[in-house]
Specification:
This protein is α/β, with parallel strands linked by helices and 367 residues long. It folds into 2 domains: 2-171 and 349-363, Rossmann fold (3-Layer(aba) Sandwich); 191-347, Rossmann fold. Helix content is 40%, strand content 17%. The chain is built from 14 helices and 13 strands. The strands form 2 sheets. A 7-stranded parallel β-sheet has the order 3-2-1-4-5-6-7, sandwiched between helices. Strands 10-9-8-11-12-13 form a 6-stranded parallel β-sheet, sandwiched between helices. Helix 7 (232-242) links the parallel strand 9 (222-226) and strand 10. Helix 3 packs across helix 4, helix 6 (204-213) runs parallel beside helix 7 and helix 6 crosses helix 11. The protein is globular and about 65 Å long.
């Protein structure tokens, strides 16, 4: 099958990691793939299978003002339409709210169904009034809509009533065996790990406050947050203000975080909202007990409280701190939760997710 896949960029992020996993898997299945981004291909952080044709449109210019936004987005639609026509797809798959709108508009009349994917919790993720209006207007033109969590699917189903709306979670791959050598780019010591884009939605400011509240008895512990983003200066300043800067480490983006995750004691996800968080799944697949913000139905699909992790109310710094402190002080309890955490790689395994995509393709009359 000829497939064209569209995403804003292949920079570091959960949706981008999912796109790579799916591209590589479908290439392995001998589908003919074209991966199109609005960003330049030279800016990729995730590199896909060489059998995937890579097209980077280089159309990420800022749009100061309504006029510039209209001009830039019309240019994106025109360029994207040209790339889609050239790739001659039997199906088009798009990731990301605004990108989904542009892709549906660009694909009109090309004869291939468009499957759009919602990777966040649209009840909380604000796309702006214009994009929200356009989403409601054009999503019914899609061949199908995929939400990575029940919340995303339920939101979209309110205004997409004549097309399939399915929930297909993000795929998880079991980690490779961790190396025997210590790869940590931070000083030795028991480690709490977080991972994600340094963005307000990820709640790392809450994590810093909660870590500081764990008290002087936990002074040997270190907090490591993998990822990059616009919040870095504010988070570094906050760590200094809290007096924990020497114990907080922000190594940036890591191409393969799993070996580093495997060397932590447990994982914390303090997000204000999520869709189906890949970072949480990857940490659990590495055998880490987790403390996670109960911020969306997607999180409750992943974490089984008392079985493989702890859930705390979103935005509640004290509860987050108490959950972290319990895991720090209870190695036996931590080990008990960690033993069941890798189940996530079977519950949401890559092959199981690919089978769900194959069922969707069958509904669309594709093979």
């Amino acid at each position: 099958m000829r497939m064209s896949l569209v995403i804003y960029s292949m920079s570091g992020g959960g949706a981008e990691r999912v796109m790579k996993l799916l591209c590589d898997a479908w290439a392995q299945e001998r589908h003919v793939l074209t991966l199109i981004t609005l960003a330049q291909a030279q800016e990729d952080f995730f590199v896909v299978d060489p059998r995937v044709k890579r097209v980077g449109l280089g159309l990420m210019a800022d749009s100061p003002g309504l006029g510039a936004a209209l001009t830039n987005n019309l240019a994106r639609i025109k360029a994207l339409r040209g790339a889609l026509r050239e790739s001659r797809p039997q199906v088009i798959i798009s990731f990301g709210d605004a990108t989904n709108v542009l892709t549906i508009l660009a694909a009109r009349g090309l004869g291939a169904p468009v499957v759009v994917c919602e990777h966040t919790d649209p009840y909380h993720h604000q796309v702006g009034r214009l994009w929200a209006y356009l989403r409601r207007l054009v999503y019914p033109w899609a061949g199908a809509v995929v939400g990575v969590s029940p919340a995303a699917s339920q939101y979209v189903a309110r205004f997409v009533r004549r097309r399939p709306v399915l929930t297909i979670p993000n795929p998880i791959q079991p980690p490779r065996p961790a190396p025997a050598t210590d790869l940590r780019p931070w000083p030795l010591g028991p480690t709490v790990m977080g991972m994600g884009r340094l963005h307000p939605s990820k709640g790392f400011d809450l994590l810093l406050e909660a870590f500081a509240r764990c008290g002087p008895d936990m002074a040997a512990w270190r907090l490591v947050i993998l990822g990059e983003g616009p919040e870095r200066p504010r988070l570094e300043a906050q760590a200094l203000r809290l007096g924990i800067a020497q114990r907080v480490h922000l190594p940036g983006l890591v191409a393969d975080p799993l070996p580093l995750l495997s060397q932590a004691e447990f994982f914390v996800m303090p997000s204000r909202y999520e869709g189906f968080p890949m970072a949480l799944c990857e940490a659990m697949s590495c055998g880490l007990a987790v403390v996670a913000s109960d911020c969306s139905p997607g999180v409750r699909q992943i974490v089984r409280p008392g079985v493989d992790g702890l859930l705390v109310p979103p935005g509640d710094v004290e509860s987050l701190s108490q959950g972290m402190l319990w895991l720090m002080q209870n190695p036996e309890g931590r080990a008990r939760l960690a033993r069941r955490a890798p189940d996530v790689a079977q519950r949401f395994g890559l092959q199981r997710v690919l089978d769900q995509w194959a069922e969707l393709f069958g509904q669309l009359g594709l093979s």
